[in-house]
Amino acid sequence: MPNNFETALRQQAIKHYVIPKRRDKLLTVKQLYKHEPFLFMGKLIMPDGKGNIKSTHDPMKVAVDFFTHDNDTLFHMYGFNWVPEEPYYTRARKLLGY
């Protein structure tokens, strides 16, 4: 079941969401109108480029798939290419024993 944040974001009920004392975690409308994935609150969010969320993914699962599949397969599975950012990159490598 989605939490309140995901529900509000999917319904475009909010334009900005700020975590208190964490200004670096500001979600802007501009991010939703780009067609590239971004991390927000522990989720990998893929906007559709029209202000809606196309899909959300677990970044750790995508990071593990990054190391176990080729680029074309990843694009076919998720609909986008993404190179894992820290700490997901090193955690996935460690999990797989690389």
Major β-sheet annotation = 3 strands, antiparallel
Overall 3D shape: globular
The helix fraction, in percent, is 25-40%
- Give, in spatial order, the strands making up the sheet with the most strands: 3-4-5
- Could you spell the SSE succession in H and E letters? HEEHEEEHHH
The strand count comes to 5
Structural class: alpha+beta
Count of separate DSSP helical elements: 5
Mean of all residue-level pLDDT scores:
79
Q: Cα-atom Rg, whole angstroms?
A: 14 Å
What percentage of the residues does DSSP assign to strands (E)? 15-25%
Poorly predicted runs of 5 or more residues: 12-23
| Total domains | 2
The CA-CA distance between the termini, in Å, is 34 Å
Properties at a glance:
two-stranded antiparallel sheet, 98 residues, alpha+beta, 39% helix, single chain, 5 strands, globular, 5 helices
Short synopsis of the structure:
The chain has 98 residues and is of the alpha+beta class. The protein folds into two domains: 1-57, no CATH class; 58-98, no CATH class. 39% of the residues lie in helices and 22% in strands.
Description:
There is one protein chain. This protein has 98 residues and is α+β, with helices and mostly antiparallel strands. It folds into two domains: 1-57, no CATH class; 58-98, no CATH class. Helices cover 39% and strands 22% of the residues. It has a three-stranded antiparallel sheet. A two-stranded antiparallel sheet has the order 1-2. A hairpin with a 2-residue loop joins strand 1 (17-19) and strand 2. The model is unreliable at 12-23 (pLDDT under 50).
